[in-house]
Amino acid sequence: MKYFDRVLIANRGEIARRIIRTCKRLGIQTVSVYSEADAELPFVKEADEAVPIGQSQAKMSYLDIEKILDAAKQTNAQAIHPGYGFLSENPAFAKRCEEEGIVFIGPRSSMIQAMGSKIEARRLMQAAGVPVVPGYDGKIDTVEEALRIAESLGYPLMLKASAGGGGIGMQLVSSAEELQKVYSSTIQRANSYFGDGTVFLEKFIENPRHIEVQVVCDHHGNAIHLFERECSVQRRNQKVIEESPSPFLTGEDRRKLCETAVQGIKNIGYTNVGTMEFIFGNDHSFYFLEMNTRLQVEHPVTEAVTGLDLVELQLKIAAGEQLAIKQEDVKQNGHAVESRLYAEDPLTYFPSPGKINRLTFPGQDVRLDFAVVEGNTVSPFYDPMIGKIITHGSTREEALQKMERSLTELDVDGITTNLPLLIQVLQNRDFQQGNYTTQLLNKMGNGGIGIVKG
Fold this sequence. Notes:
The protein is α+β, with helices and mostly antiparallel strands. 33% of the residues lie in helices and 26% in strands. The chain contains 15 helices and 21 strands. Helix 4 runs antiparallel to helix 5, helix 7 (143-153) packs across helix 8 and helix 12 packs antiparallel against helix 13 (419-426). It starts with 5 loop residues before the first strand and ends in an 11-residue tail after the last helix.
């Protein structure tokens, strides 16, 4: 089914190519928008039409709402897919789409607004009966107020930006002295990155696991989950390797977690695809962290184990169609793993832009979602992730073996990447046994990077 005649993709790189693939399969024409830095990238050439929208800096191109809307009107696009990052969770952009009569492929702007505030999201989930990390849900105006609240909650705590995301705007504090020291700088950082300096306090869960649930809801009251993704391999609070199912969950854990996620989204009347993120303690207790109101980077592992196309589901729901699948139709088939390839130094995590002189892909039994081809230049202007490697097997062991083989066969010359780090995680005994938390890379040494060099 077609759903739309023409869709504009307000994004770049691998996610733009990913959306184009599904649209082509469905007979939907696509429009790419691109900055000066991206003119030679594959996503520009693969779309049916491409519109330049400005200079390389994101705020002068991919974050310019009016330029993107102008491109949509100029090309007669009926809908806009925002991908992830950039404007995908910007309620002002979704609202402008609504005002212009262009379908925003995602939830309505008021829902993005509500769930984009971590404080408001915590309140909504508590009202829905979803457990949240113990903490203070009000706006904290002064360091003296923060100190009083912290004293009542007890240290260690996380001082968090309400509008934060991507691991930015979080600060661990273990004492009143530390809280006093970082309070103002955390607010300044939140203002700088998110334009909102509101902060709040949560209890710090030590040595946790990060597990999320993919949810899908239509406009007809149907809501289902597509099971969980384990995302605990992280560097600086940003995901590196994801897998599904989680090796940590029991069947009963999984049932409770997924039912809780669906309970939460039904209660708030969510629509389109989204992700409920949870944090797990060693005792298997779990708490709601936040909701991402968009397609996730790691959505391919869910597609691999369920056989569903999440971009098609997004298009279908945005077109007002009813979900054709029921919860009992969704099965977890085998095991899937995704590795994120970053153009960055695995020792320092600093981006490593430059020209890719050689790019050799692995041969078989692997899905490759890449932004670049050989000869492309990785720009310093955007996130350094250049591709994703996804493997699937009938068992976790088989999926991991395929991943290790694929990473070993992958060859990138001309830029520095985190490929050595990915291989070493795959070879780590704790990871292989599924016995790991968000502290895995730290346990491997110096944030996981000490063992890489040489």
